[in-house]
């Protein structure tokens, strides 16, 4: 079984270090038998989550579209910057909205339940965004995801890439390769029933 894996960078900045990590991940996973989907949050803009808006307007279409994409996957790799030792608002707001999707085409769904989730981050600091990943780990476990113990934090990330965006820090590259290998292996063994239209 070829695992289906989605990659979501938690930043829309064009110069984001985490988007560089996402690009490296795409290159690594291209060497496996996994089917990989790159989901750019810029393509799924969402309002700030508000319970009153949900009650009055319902779930935004982009949240439902993203939920539909995730339901087709066996695994998800979240590559997130760290804001004040926690999850950046763009990513947290997206997770909050998608977690509220309960039906697709009249069928009950829980987009994150049973999804194998890997975590990665990059930061100019010496901890590589690892504190933010711990906060993200708690959220994804609460939503029923199978969060891998293995993770990748690229420290001193401003100096970790060459001019073409390739990861040149050996420790970080090996860590990212180990995360990708684990993600493929575990998603293959814990494959969930994929949603089909």
UniProtKB/TrEMBL annotation:
InterPro entries: Flavoprotein-like_sf (IPR029039), FMN_Rdtase-like_dom (IPR005025), NAD(P)H-dep_reductase (IPR050712). It comes from the Bacteria. Residues 3-157 form the NADPH-dependent FMN reductase-like domain. GO terms for molecular function: FMN binding; oxidoreductase activity. Pfam families: FMN_red. GO terms for cellular component: cytosol. PANTHER family: CHROMATE REDUCTASE (PTHR30543), NAD(P)H-DEPENDENT FMN REDUCTASE LOT6 (PTHR30543:SF21). This is NAD(P)H-dependent FMN reductase. It comes from Fulvimarina manganoxydans.
């Amino acid at each position: 079984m070829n695992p289906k894996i989605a990659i979501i960078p938690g930043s829309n900045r064009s110069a984001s270090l985490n988007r560089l990590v996402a690009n490296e991940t795409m290159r690594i996973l291209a060497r496996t038998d996994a089917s990989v989907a790159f989901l750019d949050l810029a393509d799924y803009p969402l309002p700030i989550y508000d319970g009153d808006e949900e009650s009055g307007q319902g779930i935004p279409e982009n949240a439902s579209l993203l939920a539909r994409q995730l339901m087709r996957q066996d695994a998800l790799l979240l590559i997130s910057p760290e804001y004040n030792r926690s999850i950046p608002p763009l990513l947290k707001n997206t997770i909050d909205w998608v977690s509220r999707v309960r039906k697709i085409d009249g069928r009950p769904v829980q987009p994150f339940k049973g999804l194998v989730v890997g975590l990665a981050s990059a930061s100019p600091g010496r901890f590589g965004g690892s504190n933010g990943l711990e906060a993200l780990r708690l959220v994804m476990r609460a939503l029923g995801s199978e969060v891998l113990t293995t993770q990748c934090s690229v420290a001193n990330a401003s100096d970790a890439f060459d001019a073409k965006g390739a990861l040149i820090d050996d420790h970080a590259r090996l860590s990212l390769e180990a995360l990708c290998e684990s993600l493929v292996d575990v998603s293959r063994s814990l494959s969930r029933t994929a949603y089909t239209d």
